[in-house]
Amino acid sequence: MMDLATLLTFTIAAFALVVTPGPDMLLIMTRSVAQGRVAGFVTLGGISAGCYFHAVIAGLSLSGVLLLAPVMFEIIRWAGAAYLLYLAVQALRGSGGFQPPAGDAPAVPLLALFRQGLLTNILNPKVALFFLALFPQFMRPDPDTAVAQALILASVLNVAGGIVNGAIILAAGRLGEFLGARPGFVRWQNRLLGGVFAALALRLALDARR
Fold first, then answer.
1. pTM attached to this predicted model
2. Which terminus, N or C, of the chain has the lesser number of Cβ atoms within 10 Å?
3. Are the CB atoms for 169 and 40 separated by under 8 Å?
4. Rounded to an integer, what distance in angstroms lies between the CA atom of residue 78 and that of residue 84?
5. DSSP H helix total and E strand total for the chain
6. Which residues contact 91 (CB under 8 A, 6 or more apart)?
7. Over its length of 210 residues, how does the chain's per-residue pLDDT go in tens digits?
């Protein structure tokens, strides 16, 4: 279904993505600082479940498009490449910089934390667009396996996110101070992410010429 080289490439991209501070990381860090490690892992669980939701939607969408007209799949790939290039520019410009979390957030029940992480991820239209932009770059145009391929990629992304965000949860208190006091480190991460997005867009352009 998916070759090892493709999975390795996506794994590298996934780790480059999850190490960059964003809304999910900020939410996890805030809850970990305010309520401890259990709260952080529960929030992470909700966010991971949201990723699977987006993966299923992306897989079904791509499957339907492939059944209607294979050329539409290429249109989505090019539109996704354009969006990735836009994200590269935004990352290199440092838009949406990290802000240290406050440690005095009110306590929230664990079920509510899971729901908060889930809904924060599901209801973010940028996340859905991101899945539709990124996943086709690593998927084969096969309508019968589109959903399965998307779920595999989502699992890789969640494993990468679990490793990175799990480490953040375990060291949330000191990490907030570290990132808040080192804007240069955040800028470096933005440049790394911008390079990953640009490389993905270039890869699509090269594949289209084959």
1. 0.72
2. C
3. yes
4. 10
5. 9, 0
6. 20, 190, 191, 193, 194, 197
7. 678 888 998 998 888 878 876 667 877 887 887 788 899 999 999 999 999 998 998 888 877 766 666 666 667 667 767 766 776 787 677 654 444 455 455 677 999 999 988 987 887 666 777 787 788 888 888 888 989 999 999 999 999 999 999 998 988 767 656 666 666 766 776 677 677 767 767 776 666 555
